[in-house]
Amino acid sequence: MKIYLQILFCFFLLSCNSNKNATITKVNNLEFEVKTDSASWLDSSRNRLIPVAFYSPIVNDKIRNQQLVIISHGYGENKPGANKSYSYLTKKLASKGYFVISIQHELPTDDLLPLTGIPQVVRRSNWERGAENILFVLNELKKIKPELDFNHVNLIGHSNGGDMAVLFAHKYPNTVDKIISLDNRRMELPRTSQPKIYSLRSNDQPADEGVLPTVEAQKKFGIKIIKLPNTIHNDMNDRGNKRQKREINTYVLGFLSE
To answer: Could you tell me which residue ranges the AB hydrolase-1 domain spans (predicted)?
Structure first.
């Protein structure tokens, strides 16, 4: 009888541990309250301040292998706070267990984005600066949040911020796991299966020639390009309606879970 009870107790412990692990593994099935914060970090190598906004789930226990999402905003004419204009997305991702950081790429003292000339030429320095901002933020997070899963770094960028994220994938392909472009139009998407490439497209602003891979290339590399028939380019941030935001959130969460 004593041995029988010991066996039952062992099964009970195994069951508890299994359920705990299942809860951690399937954290995206839960919905957490979200904590927000902000800071300004100094990249001393470039003597540049980089404002960032944080969005994280409020949890009792740390999420094992918590994934990181870095978001890059669309062009905001150097106005402060552009990185906080995607709250529908940042808060939703954090509520699903992701650690989210949104970078303010533009400062009031920066030159405005050139609106004339060949974009791939005249805007390249802007995208390069954005890619270096992402790299700096990533390296800072490794210092202060070493428990994050840096083997599965996810970048999301809208419009000009999407071009920055895509350029980052070209420059540092082994640093990022997934790139999700919200209607980037200028920087050519990598033709590669790693990092994984996803793009949601608006119904009003086409990409430049060569930016999007052919159907054949999409199949070859597993790239997913999805057009949103009811969403224009400028409605991919907080200006969008509830239906548009819900659709983008659904797609993005689906991409991240693959």
So the answer is: 69-188
Taking alpha carbons only, the member of 205, 245, 89, 60 closest to residue 157 is 89
User: pLDDT value at position 28?
Assistant: 56
The answer to whether the beta carbons of residues 238 and 86 sit under 8 Å apart is: yes
Q: What is the pLDDT of residues 47-77, one digit of tens each?
A: 999 999 999 999 999 999 999 999 999 999 9
Residue located via tokens 């706070």: 81
Q: Alpha-carbon distance 247 to 53, whole Å?
A: 23
Mutual angle of helices 160-171 and 124-144, in 10-degree steps: 70
Give the number of residues written for the chain.
Answer: 258
Q: What is the Cβ-side half-sphere exposure of residue 164, based on CA atoms within 13 angstroms?
A: 28
* Percent of the chain with pLDDT strictly greater than 70: 89
In this structure, what DSSP letter does residue 241 have?
Answer: -
| pLDDT digits 0-9 by tens, 159-174 | 999 999 999 999 999 9
Both tokens of 67, joined, read 């994934």
Element (H, E) at 206: none
Q: What is the pLDDT of residues 34-53, one digit of tens each?
A: 999 999 999 999 999 999 99
Res 230: pLDDT:
97
CATH 3.40.50.720 fits 31-257, yes or no: no
- What SS3 class is residue 162? helix
Residue spans per domain, the chain: 1-30, 31-257
For 82-108, letters b (16+ CB in 10 Å) and e give bbbbbbbbbbbbbbbbbbbbbbbbbee
